[in-house]
Amino acid sequence: MILAPPEDTLSYTLYDTIFPKQNPFPYLGIPIRLGGYLHTQELIQGNINKALKTMNEMAMIGVNPAVFDRLLFVRFYTQIMCPQLEYGLAISMVKYREFQTIESCQNQCLHRIFWGGSRSSTQVMLHLVNQPSMKNRVHILQAKFILRSLNLPDDTLFSRLLPYLRTSASHSHCVHTQSFCLLAAHNQLLTLSSGYQ
């Protein structure tokens, strides 16, 4: 698969087999657009579609608050739907509107679990299920990703690329994401720890 614009006339071959051209294309479920950048909007829409489809399938087989205890339904949500919503967001630059879209999907799922009206607040529901907002969750995932990347063995590809990614010459969002995510995660941990004291 070659990531190339439609107007590119070059054809690439390997062992007399021509590589197909496509823009954007999915790799491990994450859409990649021209230039090698992640297509965050398409990723988020795909995640939302998967989570809502799973909620609908669970409802079709009889998993609903009338039959199951809400706590069990919440566990289904946190173990199945949340990872579907969060997939790929740790390495993405998510914009404010995209956060709103994800939050809206999470609210819709919580309303279905607790049989809340579409206008009812989900703050209490989030507290009951011990789930942060999607914005905070994404910042936590990004901070975990960065902290794990700092402890990788020296012979891994990412460890060898990291010095280049940290320079401004790479035009990478790695530098911005690192400083922003660590600060956001630190603030989130301070908020959580002060709430439990």
UniProtKB/TrEMBL annotation:
Superkingdom assignment: Eukaryota
Protein name as catalogued: Uncharacterized protein
Protein species of origin: Rhizopus delemar
